[in-house]
Every structure is written in C-alpha cells, then in structure tokens.
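Hi V.,

You were right to ask for the full record rather than a summary. Here it is.
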Amino acid sequence: MESLRITGHSGVQLAADALGPPDATPVILLPGGGQTRRAWQRTAHKLARAGYRVIALDLRGHGESDWSPDGDYSLDAFVGDVVSTVRAMSIPPILVGASLGGLSAAVAAGEHPTLPLRGLALVDIVPHVRADGIEKIRSFMTAGQAGFESPEQAAASVTAYLPHRPPRTARSLSANLRQRNDGRWYWHWDPVFSGAGRHQRGNDFSARMAAALPAIRVPTLLVSGLRSELVDEIGIRRFRELMPAAEWVGVHNAAHMVAGDANTQFSAALLNFLARLSENRPALSASDLLPQHKDGSQ
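Predicted structure:
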C-alpha cells in the first residue's frame, strides 16, 4: 500500500492510500462525513485483488487530510476536492462515494460534464433523505465535540449509536481518535466541520444534488441499506425519477453505513457494476441485483 498526498480545493492537502496495479483503472473511494479512508479497507483490498487501482481518500478535515485553514467545509469545497482528485489521475477513474462523499461525487459529475469519468457509484445518499436520519447523525457528531475521558467511553458511544453492529472496542477505534493536551480523546475530524464553520451553513444539499443528477452522463449505481435511517422508498423513487437509467441495489441487513454493515454484499454489488463497466455489458435491473435468500426470495 502506498501513501499519497493530493492537492484539493484551495490547496488543502488530502491524504490517500493507493493499492492495486498502478496502470489499472482507478477507483476513487470517498467516505462519509465523520469517517476516514479506513472505512473502505475491506472493499479496497477486494477491488485491488480484482485488478483495479484503488485510491481511498480522507475528506478535508478528516483523518490525515489537512483541516481547512479558513473553516471551509462547504459543498463547493468538497466538490472541488473531488474535481481536483479526478484530474490528478492519468486514467479516467470511477468514483465511489458514501453519504457526504457520494453527494460530493454526484454534484461534481453533474456540474462538471467534461470531467473525465468512467462511472459513479453512490452509497446510501439521494437528494431527498429522511430528516430524522440527518438529525440522528448530527446529534452523534455534536455529542462528541467535548471529547471523551477514555477510548472506552468513545467506544460505548459508538455502540449506542450503532446497536445493530457488534460492540466496538477501544482498540478498534485507535485510528479514529486523537488525544489532545487536555488529556481527553477526540474524534479525528476538525470540530469546525460539525460545528458552525463560516462556509458550512446555508448549503442546499438536496436541491444541488437533485439538479446535478439529470446532467450525469456516466453509468451510475445507487447502493442503499434496506435498514437505512437516511434513504427510504420515497427517496429511492425520487432518485430514479431524476436518473431513470441508474441502477439500484438494496442491501439486506445494512443501515446507512452499508459497506461496514454488510461488506460482502456491498462489495459484490460494486464489483458486478465495475465488471460490466469494463466489459460494456448492459445494466441489470434492480431485482436482478438484489441479494437473494436461500429460498430464492428477495
């Protein structure tokens, strides 16, 4: 695995891991807000073994990427980072983005029609999301702004937030926490990101994504968790009205963090999509791609 630094919007340096053949089709993995590039670890290795060049990125203000010096965590900034990353590739890449990463990728693809892309995969993000789901995520992120007395306390907060997952341990969160001079442990993101950054407020994410989707000209896949707290049937229906040619896969036993909740099913759906991009095979219907139970039902 190779460590990279990519220059993003306004010169912000973005940290990335690269693996797989250097001359292969790049797949750029963009995590959600509050995550790091390590959220893609299992999928990244599967893609590399399948012969892709994988670039897993930390968003600005997250992980080992730079914090924005002027607190710019606007959608324009995240979209600019995506555009800069794509243009840094010598081969047109495929974008895979979860939540905020997917929102940024979709807007970049729709608002920059000349951007050299081969495909787009969006993970549990649509223009019309559930308001209660957004509030749940915001509450979790703001609750950690004061820090934790110990990594164990942070792990307990994650377990309470994700009760459908096996309990987290302090060791499993070691890459996600930083101990500051006050002795308390804090999440790996810039606190301005989840606070009142001077550029963060006032972005109409829903309208911006809705306007961008019909302008996207590359094959697009939406993967959502069938237990998602953000994306429901109404959101999927509206998404498909805006992008009739897009594919959709619903993953059983997965909530908003699809790749972490059900990585085997998620990675299989993504690899299927990527393989058909490479072979120029026709799109499958949503029912063809839905995971099947042993009795053949979906």
